[in-house]
Write a structure and sequence with these properties.
The chain has 273 residues and is of the alpha/beta class. Helix content is 33%, strand content 19%. The chain has one domain: Spore Coat Polysaccharide Biosynthesis Protein SpsA, Chain A. The chain contains nine helices and 13 strands. The strands form three sheets. The protein has an eight-stranded mixed sheet, with helices on both faces. A three-stranded mixed sheet has the order 1-3-2, with helices on one face. Strands 9-12 form a two-stranded parallel sheet. The longest helix has 18 residues, at 152-169.
Length: 273
């Protein structure tokens, strides 16, 4: 079994062999991996989510968006060491930023709580990161990916928005609006997240390119939400994403000037239990 270190760790003392985490038959890693799951009233879906999470991850951070069902209790039953963070704001972006702050791992994986993503794919994301990528971006339209949960209108909108981002910012994305991603935690200092809505995923994809970070797309398969109904609305949400794209276009230079000065997170966003 080979063992892989983050390139930035070259020159530092290697950890004892016992600290490596085997993640496949040919790969072991030293960096701890945190998985962030924003959830609101997802008690029925969490068993499917947690069932696919690999046992070698360092921690699971569940961000509870004031659930009125048994989301927190179910999470603790399924993963006794789960770190539960109470979200005080609103929106997926706010939930993710709150979760990122609570992470202690060097690698952060963000995954949805509706059962649409397969946790077994995390190994592919982590492998890309320890091999040199800064940001591993899930794609349903890369070779090997797919989706059961997109209408023709949503696919068309995603393609159009993705094309705009590629042309305006020099990216080479095949997918734009997908929430299954992983990255080295230090990347957060360079992208200055300030979006509270679900558009946060698009914002991240744009800012990692603007920051000059190395991005690798990971083929991913999106399944149907298992229980409950999605709040996504193709036309309304498409315009919200477009506003983020256009706003980033006009603020690129300002973002670069702020990149080394603005703190990412407010330490008072969440309470950990």
């Amino acid at each position: 079994m080979s063992s892989v270190l983050r390139p930035a760790a070259v020159g530092q003392d290697a950890p004892p062999a016992g600290q490596y985490r085997p993640i496949s038959t040919h790969l072991a890693i030293a960096p701890p991996v945190s998985v962030v799951i924003p959830a609101m009233n997802e008690a029925e879906n969490l068993p499917y989510v947690f069932k696919t999470l690999p046992d070698w991850i360092h921690e699971v951070v569940l961000v509870d968006g004031n659930s009125t069902d048994d989301t927190v209790a179910v999470a603790r039953e399924l993963w006794p060491e789960v770190k539960v963070v109470k979200q005080h704001g609103k929106g997926k972006g706010d939930a993710l930023i709150t979760g990122f702050e609570a992470c202690t791992g060097d690698i952060v994986v963000m995954i949805d709580a509706d059962g649409s993503a397969d946790g077994n794919e995390i190994v592919s994301y982590v492998s890309a990161l320890v091999s040199g990528a800064d940001f591993a971006k899930g794609s349903r339209f890369a070779n090997g990916g797919g989706t059961d949960d997109m209408t023709f209108i949503r696919k068309l909108g995603n393609w159009a928005l993705c094309t705009i981002v590629n042309r305006k910012f020099g990216a080479r994305y095949t997918d734009l609006c997908y929430g299954y991603n992983a990255f080295w935690r230090h990347c957060l200092d360079k992208i200055d997240l300030d979006c509270t809505g679900f558009e946060v995923e698009t914002l991240m994809n744009i800012r990692v390119v603007k920051a000059g970070l190395k991005v690798q797309e990971i083929p991913s398969y999106e399944y149907l939400r298992i229980h409950g109904a999605s709040n996504l609305r193709a036309v309304r949400d498409g315009f919200r994403v477009l506003r983020v794209i256009l706003g980033e276009r006009s603020n690129r230079r300002a973002l670069r000037r702020r990149a080394h000065h603005s703190p990412l997170l407010d330490s008072r966003r969440g309470e950990v239990s």
